[in-house]
Amino acid sequence: MQRRRGGVRREGGQVVEQVEFRGGYPVAESAAASYDRSDLRRAVEAYRFFYPVVSMEGILRGTRAAGAVDNESAPLVVARPHHVGFTLNSDTPYLGGGLDLRESGPLVIELPAGPLVGLVDDHYHRWLVDLGLPGRNGPDGGKVLLLPPGYEGEVPACPRGTRWCAPTPGRCWSRCGHCRSVAT
After folding, report:
1. Which tens digits make up the pLDDT trace of 99-111?
2. Are 104 and 71 in contact (CB under 8 A)?
3. What is the dihedral of CA 5, 7, 12, 16, to 10 degrees?
4. Pseudo-torsion of CA 51, 93, 136, 151, nearest 10°?
C-alpha cells in the first residue's frame, strides 16, 4: 500500500500541522494528533476571548457580595497583594459597581473636581469612556450620560461638559456643539 503525506497546513512558511494519509484516508494516530491540536487551539481561543468577561463577572459578583447593588452603590476597595483579581493592581484603590442600563435606562455619572482617574467598561471589559484626569474635562470634574444599547427615547438637553455615550464597544458621540466625540 502506498504511503503519502497530505493535509499540510502552513503559517508563515512553516508547517504547523501535517496529517499522514494511507490509501487516501488519514492514519488514525495522525488524525488523533490533528484533533488534539485543534482542541488545544480552540481552548486557547476560548480562554483568550472569555478571559475579560470572566474577569468582569468576577468583579461584579465580588462587589455584589460586598453589599453593592447594581445602579445604586459601589464599594471602595483599596487593593492589596492578598486580594485576588484577574485585572487588579495590588496598590490601587478601586471604586466600582455594576450598571445595568436595561433596568435603569439612561444614567448620568457625575465626577467632582479633583485628581480622579476612572473609566467605564462594558461587560466584555471593553473601554467606553474615560472619567476624571484622562477624560475630556480633566481635573475639573464633569458628567457622562450613559445610554442603553439601542436607546431611542428622548435625550435631554446637553449641559456644557456632558459626554453622551452608548454602551456599544468604543462608541461615544456628540449630541450638541459643546460635547466632543470620544470615538466614532
Report:
1. 888 888 888 888 8
2. yes
3. -80
4. 50
Please report the pLDDT score of residue 171 as a whole number: 36
Contact between residue 147 and residue 179 where contact means Cβ atoms under 8 Å apart: no
Half-sphere exposure of 172 (CA within 13 A, CB side): 23
pLDDT digit string, tens, across residues 138-158: 898 888 888 887 778 877 665
Taking the alpha carbons of 144, 150, 155, 160 in that order, is the dihedral positive or negative?
positive
User: What kind and span of H or E run contains 144?
Assistant: strand 142-146
State the Cα–Cα distance between residues 131 and 148, nearest whole angstrom.
18
| pLDDT at residue 181, rounded to an integer | 35
Give the pLDDT of residue 103. 85
**Of 163, 160, 136, which is closest to residue 147 (Cα–Cα)?**
163
Round to whole Å and give the CA distance between 120 and 146: 9
Residue 20: strand pairing partners:
5
Sort strands 162-165 and 142-146 into parallel, antiparallel or unpaired. Answer: parallel
How many whole angstroms separate alpha carbon 64 and alpha carbon 109?
A: 19
22 φ, ψ (degrees, to nearest 5): -135, 125
Average pLDDT, the chain: 75
CA distances 92 to 19, 79, 83, 155, 170, Å, are 50, 6, 11, 35, 25
